[in-house]
Design a protein that fits this description.
Blueprint lengths: L3 E3 L5 E3 L3 E2 L5 H14 L3 E3 L7 H8 L8 E6 L7 H15 L3 E6 L9 H13 L3 E7 L3 H11 L5 E5 L7 H9 L3 E5 L11 H10 L3 H12 L2 E2 L6 H8 L8 H8 L16
Parallel strand pairs: 3-4, 4-5, 5-6, 6-7, 7-8, 8-9, 9-10
Antiparallel strand pairs: 1-2
Helix pairs in contact: 1-2, 1-9, 2-3, 4-5, 7-8
Keywords: NADP, Oxidoreductase
InterPro entries: AKR, Aldo/ket_reductase_CS, NAD(P)_OxRdtase_dom_sf, NADP_OxRdtase_dom
Pfam family, one: Aldo_ket_red
């Protein structure tokens, strides 16, 4: 079973994909194949992950047409229009296929250039070079500025989110503006798997702690991209449609919120 979410551009996004951050290049192709064979239909990559050529190698071994392929603009050295176009061309060439979803990886607000970067993504979309454009790690003020200055609402905002950091206020803003929340680090970089509350729910339901957390994300109504290089774990993480968490389960998990991040705050990435 698969669940797709309708985007504000009229296309669909698989709610549950798999991420490739910190997946070593030498195993990336095999992970892509294993993810596809497990049943995933979204592969989340990025220029910064330094494994896009290997992602492309994996894509050539599966039915590419069944997959949504994501990449992201890094922009550490330059964020002008030409830099964005060069990065997009390089990612497309490395992947050896078209990019379905292209995102700004970080707003880098101190540089004050993310609106211009966004305008270039809009240009790529309007030229038909990419289907869907979105952002990653954008806080509400960054989103408000994009919308106010360009009139174009991102289809997706990929942000750190897990039971310690559910991002309820940001999710509410997304819902009000027809933006899909896509969670990275959805398992808290694996640290939440040992949480006793999660473990108790998992034992009662008869599933793994990871499956409990993934199901929690889905019941919040968003998307997520857990990562694993283990084929069995990939299959397990996708097997979350045969059970539901109760209201009491959701309330217990809500009680885990601390605001703790496992990654960088959006305002701190220069």
């Amino acid at each position: 079973m698969h669940k797709d979410l309708r985007l504000n551009d009229g296309s669909d996004l698989p709610a549950l994909g798999f991420g490739l951050y910190k997946v070593a290049p030498e195993v990336t192709g095999e992970v892509v194949v294993a993810g596809f064979e497990a049943g995933y239909r979204l592969v989340d990559g990025a220029e910064f992950y330094h494994n896009e050529s290997e992602v492309g190698e994996g894509l050539r071994r599966v039915d590419r047409d069944l997959l949504t392929v994501t990449s992201k603009f890094w922009g550490e050295e330059s964020q002008d229009r030409d830099a964005v176009l060069r990065a997009f061309d390089a990612s497309e060439s490395a992947l050896g296929t078209s990019i379905d979803v292209y995102m700004i990886h970080w707003p880098r607000p101190k540089r004050n250039q993310y609106v211009d970067v966004w305008r270039t993504l809009v240009e790529l979309r309007d030229q038909g070079r990419v289907r869907t454009i979105g952002v990653s790690n954008f806080a509400q003020p960054h989103l408000e500025r994009l919308i106010d200055e360009t009139g174009v609402v991102p289809a997706v905002n990929q942000v750190e989110s897990h039971p310690w950091l559910p991002q309820h206020d940001l999710r509410a803003f997304h819902d009000a503006n027809d933006i899909i929340t896509q969670a990275w680090s959805p398992l808290g970089r694996g640290r939440l798997l040992a949480d006793p509350t999660i473990g108790q729910i998992a034992d009662r339901v008869g599933v793994s702690p990871a499956q409990v957390i993934i199901r929690w994300h889905l019941q919040l109504g968003g998307a997520l991209i857990p990562k694993s290089t283990n084929p069995e774990r990939l299959r397990e993480n996708l097997d979350v449609y045969g059970f539901e968490l109760t209201d009491a389960d959701m309330a217990a998990i809500a009680g885990l919120e601390t605001g703790e991040r496992t990654g960088t705050h959006p305002d701190d990435r220069n």
